[in-house]
Amino acid sequence: MIKALIGLDLDGTVFTNEKKITDNVRRAIMSAIEAGFMVLPVSGRYLKGLPKDLMNIKGIEYAITSNGAVTYHIDSYDKLMYDVVAKRHLSKAQVTDVLEILLKTDTYPDLFAYGGGHMLKRHRDLIPHMKVSKAIEDYLMNCREFIDDFYEYLDENPDAIEKITTNFVLDEEGMRKKAKCKEMLLKLDGLSIVSGSVHNLEVTDAAATKGNALLSLADILGVDRRAVCAIGDDENDLDMIVKAGFGIAMGNAKDEVKKKAAYITNTNEEDGVVAGIEAFVRYLSDK
């Protein structure tokens, strides 16, 4: 019997700033699983971008990716053996409308499909100039398929797009472009527009949110929604933190996330997930 569900954001939450999972966080996750909790990543990343250090922990059986667009049951992460439990992809029309805005504003779009990321070949050499951390640069450079043309890819895969992330240079001009893009994207109907990091915007179907996916999985697994915990730090985590029975903001979270959380834990550099899980256990024992 599953006692409770714990959904963990990755970047800025499980990961340190250097994209590492500390031994303390790993042990806390393992202890929660051994105690009968279902622990899973709830990430803006695509399936193939999830860290093996986490996914190979015994008892990690589910993953929610692309900000809630896809939920997987994982049989073997190393062998990429999985079943899709639920999905809510963008339509071809939605993707076309979004790309029209992003490509006009000279950004670096990234189409998530089939559990992977797809960027334009002409943008590959520009990634080192985005002024992001080395860990993010490596993630973009080494974990993407680089393609010739988005529209050609979309014609061949019209129903496959889980999410569109667009990346910006981390300077004053890049932040102006980000604000302008968000303003234009918000005028489109039926979309969720959030930021998963200071350097990006993330677009999914309006129904594809972390909170919706986490609660839907709780229903599938027969877990009372009051026994659902969500831990995160950024704008794309706000939905699940608000909707979970016990929403936890990291110490490094944005102020808007902290204001909506039931509990604020330590930062991602201080093993905040550990203290967060401990707080959730206390919450359950007091119920």
Give a description of the structure.
Strand 12, helix 10 (238-243) and strand 13 form a beta-alpha-beta unit. Strands 8-7-6-9-11-10 form a 6-stranded mixed beta sheet. The chain has a 5-stranded parallel beta sheet with strand order 2-1-12-13-14, with helices on both faces. Strands 3-4-5 form a 3-stranded antiparallel beta sheet, covered by helices on one side. It starts with a strand and ends with a helix. The protein is built from 12 helices and 14 strands. The model has no long low-confidence stretch (mean pLDDT 94). With 287 residues, it is an alpha/beta fold. It has helices at residues 10-14, 23-34, 52-55, 92-104, 121-124, 134-142, 150-156, 172-185, 210-221, 238-243, 255-260, 272-286; strands spanning 4-8, 37-41, 62-65, 70-76, 81-87, 108-113, 116-120, 144-147, 161-167, 191-194, 200-205, 228-232, 246-249, 263-264. It folds into 2 domains: 4-88 and 208-286, 3-Layer(aba) Sandwich (Rossmann fold); 92-205, Hypothetical Protein, Haloacid Dehalogenase-like Hydrolase, Chain: A, domain 2, CATH 3.30.1240.10. Helix 2 runs parallel beside helix 12 and helix 4 runs antiparallel to helix 7.
